[in-house]
Amino acid sequence: MIGWIIAIIVFALVFFVIGIYNGLIRLRNRVKESGSDIEVQLKRRYDLIPNLVETVKGYAAHEKTAFENVTAARAQAISAKGFAEKAKAEDALSGTLKTLFAVTESYPELKANANFLELQRELTDTEDKIQAARRFYNSNVLVLNTKIEVFPSNIVAGMFKFQKAEFFEVQNAAEKEPVKVKF
After folding, report:
1. Which one in 17, 29, 103, 105 has a CA-CA gap of 20 to 30 Å to 1?
2. Rounded to whole angstroms, how far apart are CA atoms 94 and 89?
3. How confident is the model at residue 154 (pLDDT cuts 50, 70, 90)?
4. What's the whole-model pTM score?
């Protein structure tokens, strides 16, 4: 009788560990998927930026510095590795895009240009999608990291060497300040 009780306890414990392990795998895969969603939206953004810059260039040829800054920030964002570095590069790119849009305020004929308006709408839509993808990713990271830290799943996570994921954090202080345009 005691042998059966021990066997049942061991059997239940094994299924308990398997359940926690499978849950951790599902969460880790959700984090990877949501990170991939961010990458897709960032790629869309990177593809739109050259078109936007070229459209604005036609109207504001003397704003060479703004165009160079946007292009350099885009290149940095594309080549960034890891979520921390990518978040920092995305902050810089967002700041340069704000400067570019501030430059357009001086060109009423540009603001009425259909191509520019469509690109601006597409970029705004993409920015909204990036924010949603970041929130979804960070939500999944929170769930995974919590599962890795709380008892009893922390024991299983430790046994199988699950690692906490890093949040996609944007810490740009410039986001709170108005864009300054100098001519």
Report:
1. 17
2. 9
3. very high
4. 0.73
Q: Do the Cβ atoms of 175 and 94 come closer than 8 Å?
A: yes
- Average the pLDDT over 75-93 and give the result: 87
Residue 22: φ, ψ to 5°: -65, -35
Residue 181 belongs to a domain:
no
Q: How far apart are CA 51 and CA 129, in angstroms?
A: 19
CA distance 91 to 94: 5
Note the pLDDT of residue 105.
75
182 part of a folded domain = no
Supply the pLDDT for residue 83: 79
Angle at 98 between CA 36 and CA 47, to 5 degrees: 40
Give the range of the structural domain holding residue 126, as residue numbers without chain letter: 2-176
User: Quick check: is 22 in a domain?
Assistant: yes
Sign of CA pseudo-dihedral 15, 17, 21, 23:
positive
